[in-house]
Amino acid sequence: MCVYLNRMTDMMTFLHDHISLLLSLSAAGVGAGIVAGLFGVGGGTIIVPVLYALLTALGYPADLAMHVAIGTSLATIMPTAISSSRAHWRRGAVNMAVLRQLWPATALGAIVGVIVASYTRGIFLTLLFAIFAAVTGLLMLRGQKGFSLVKGMPRPPRQHALGGFIGMFSSMLGIGGGTVSVPTLAACGLVMPMAVGTGSALGLAIAIPGALGFMVAGWPVGGLPPLSLGYVNLLAFAFIAPLSALFAPLGARLAHALPELWLRYGFAAYLLLIAGRMAYKALG
């Protein structure tokens, strides 16, 4: 009985001392779910900056914090991508033909991205993401009808190269693929709601091999946060994943309720905001 009471006391002490941490993780889960459903981005563009800021505030080295943030983000994207893509699929906004074409190359690219990221410093990953997000956001602001560059999906081998690029770049940065795949699919002629839904479903091809890869890559690393499997932190996963999956359908409903032009401009503004935040953190 005394042992049980001591364990309960220790748990209450931990919760009291880390209440701000747990609240931040919960808020990240809610925000990631809404953004995932709204823009099809998997929520990684919220989860990675939040986890990076929390881990560095707790005293972990910046490079270690960035890799843990990326690996944990990919793990939390799995349930979010399932919830979000199901919501879009029910509304007929997932192009299954495009999904089947891109899935194998995207999954392979995600594995390559894990290998590259494990040997890359966190500051370079941060700056790379900021540059891509800024360029993509500016492109999406061009004109009232967006920036469709071609009439349809490219044929192999360009199609395989496209899927590989989406998977590699996304897993390197801990994002579900929407930040890369949504504007890419829109550039290939898909209307914005269809690009969002298909990009959301494509996130599974990135999150599953990406999360497993970061677990393996971080397994021999020392000094990781408690309750970590490699570069995936289970405490953060436990708080973020359920909330992000719960709130993803709300974002999906908002995506289909808003006019396409509003959605495009909102997504562009979101990308520019994230680009500025990440560049500031890296250069600061």
* Count of strand segments: 2
As a whole number of angstroms, the C-alpha radius of gyration is: 19 Å
As laid out across the biggest beta sheet, the strand order is 1-2
> Termini distance?
51 Å
Shape: globular
| SSE-based structural type | mainly alpha
The tally of domains stands at 1
Determine the strand fraction and express it as a percent band: under 5%
Q: Are there runs of 5+ residues with pLDDT below 50, and where?
A: 143-150
Oligomer: single chain
Biggest sheet, in brief? 2 strands, antiparallel
**Mean pLDDT over the full residue set:** 79
Percent helix range: over 70%
Number of helices: 11
List the helices and strands in order: HHHHHHHHHEEHH
What does this structure look like?
This protein has 284 residues and is an all-alpha fold. The chain has one domain. It is 79% helix and 1% strand. The protein contains eleven helices and two strands. It has a two-stranded antiparallel ribbon with strand order 1-2. β1 and β2 (232-233) form a beta hairpin.
Topology summary:
Elements: H1 2-17, H2 19-39, H3 44-57, H4 62-90, H5 96-118, H6 122-140, H7 158-173, H8 178-187, H9 192-218, E1 228-229, E2 232-233, H10 234-257, H11 260-283
Antiparallel strand pairs: 1-2
Helix pairs in contact: 2-3, 2-4, 2-10, 3-4, 4-9, 4-10, 5-7, 5-9, 6-11, 7-9, 8-9
